[in-house]
């Protein structure tokens, strides 16, 4: 399973949607994921990939991690996974 597919599966689970309903253009808001759901998604992604996401739930605007869309989240996770492997 690719990084993209795993991230989409985790986000879909949080949103109580089918992975097919989650598009790369979707925002978390579009999917009905609130701030608590976002934090749970981040934890699930960190566990799935054994990475640490530079995201502060208390100051999301100050974060180095782009959560503006599913595509941005996938790109950020791919970058972190690649950094970990090198």
UniProtKB/TrEMBL annotation:
Residues in domain Carrier?
Answer: 1-81
Q: Which UniProt keywords are present, listed alphabetically?
A: Fatty acid biosynthesis, Fatty acid metabolism, Lipid biosynthesis, Lipid metabolism, Phosphopantetheine, Phosphoprotein
GO terms for biological process, alphabetical? lipid A biosynthetic process
Q: What PROSITE patterns has UniProt attached to this entry?
A: CARRIER, PHOSPHOPANTETHEINE
Molecular function terms from GO: acyl binding; acyl carrier activity
Is Phosphoprotein a UniProt keyword of this protein?
yes
Q: In which pathway does it act?
A: Glycolipid biosynthesis; KDO(2)-lipid A biosynthesis
Q: Which GO terms describe its cellular component?
A: cytosol; membrane
Q: Does the keyword Zinc apply?
A: no
Which SUPFAM superfamilies does this chain map to?
Answer: ACP-like
- Entries under PANTHER family matching the protein: ACYL CARRIER PROTEIN, CARRIER DOMAIN-CONTAINING PROTEIN
Q: What is this protein called?
A: Acyl carrier protein AcpXL
Origin species, per record, is Salipiger marinus
């Amino acid at each position: 399973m690719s990084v993209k597919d795993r991230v989409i599966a985790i986000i879909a689970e949080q949103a109580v949607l089918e992975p097919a309903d989650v598009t790369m253009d979707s925002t978390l808001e579009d999917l009905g994921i609130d701030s608590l759901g976002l934090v749970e998604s981040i934890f699930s992604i960190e566990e799935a990939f054994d990475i640490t996401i530079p995201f502060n739930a208390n100051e999301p605007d100050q974060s180095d991690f782009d959560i503006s869309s599913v595509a941005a989240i996938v790109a950020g996770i791919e970058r972190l996974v690649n950094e970990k492997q090198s």
